[in-house]
Amino acid sequence: MTPGPSRIAIVIVTYNSADVIEGCLRSLAAGARGTRLADVVVADNASRDGTLQLAEGVTGLPVRTVQLGRNAGYAAAVNAGVGALDLGGLDAVLVINPDCRLRPGALTPLAEALRRPGCGIAVPRLVNPDGSLQPSLRRTPTVGRALAEAVIGGGLAGRIGTLGELVTDPREYERPAPAAWATGAAMLVATGLIGEIGPWDESFLLYSEETEYALRAADRGWSLWYEPASVVEHIGGDSGVNPTLAALLTVNKVRLFRRRRSGPASLAYFLAVVAGEAVRALAGRRTSRASVVALLRPSRRLRRLAD
């Protein structure tokens, strides 16, 4: 990091985001207060609802657009947006969803966190539109955690010590600390890290790409830091109500675990996830039913995002 205010660019990934993109863009000037906002790139996955026209109409910001020409996925759009930047003139890149709003001064604490030795990713405190906490921190995926979440649910498991993967205890969000990974809705990434570990993995299309990126960075000695002094409002929540997205999220987390662990551990993880989703499917949860079908019937898995 250079002395003085950090030089930051922002990459926003959009897909039919006309209802949220203006609010996101209009929050950036105040959110970047205390830093040097060098560039804002809207990387668009072939929106058909006027997203690009709205983005280009926002004045007072250095906004430009990159069009992928198809719905290539979140990671592909991140890579396209980052690829359009001059990283040599930057200290960090904020990757953000269009349904996020930066609270005033949100970027400065994140930029300061990246000055910590070995810190490559800094993430904010995410809140819902009503101001309530949105749990976003995760622990390393393990068979034991998958089994615990299958038996008692992720919400409860996350409150009992380090039993669950999702951190749900509100007290854990009151203090800055390292984390294994975090929701990818808003992540400030050091350009040094970008240069060392390369692009995001586009094979995941949507979900688990931020997990893979953070864990790959940790493999190379980089840490992820949670900074509650930075606050970002995130609307989000689609995977909790959309069966297709929920299934994609579940399948991808199993795929990622399989890539990183041994065969026996991967099988145990798969069975734990299937068992947990099956129990909830029997209780009537549509998202869990879709997840079970996607896990057990590879022919039904989503291979690409619809154009």
UniProtKB/TrEMBL annotation:
Domain of life: Bacteria
GO molecular function, one term: transferase activity
Keywords: Transferase
Claim: Nuclease is one of the keywords in the record: no
Keyword Transferase (UniProt): yes
Residue ranges of domain Glycosyltransferase 2-like in the record: 10-136
InterPro entries tied to this protein: Glyco_trans_2-like (IPR001173), Nucleotide-diphossugar_trans (IPR029044)
Protein name in UniProt: GT2 family glycosyltransferase
Species: Streptosporangium becharense
Lineage: Bacteria, Bacillati, Actinomycetota, Actinomycetes, Streptosporangiales
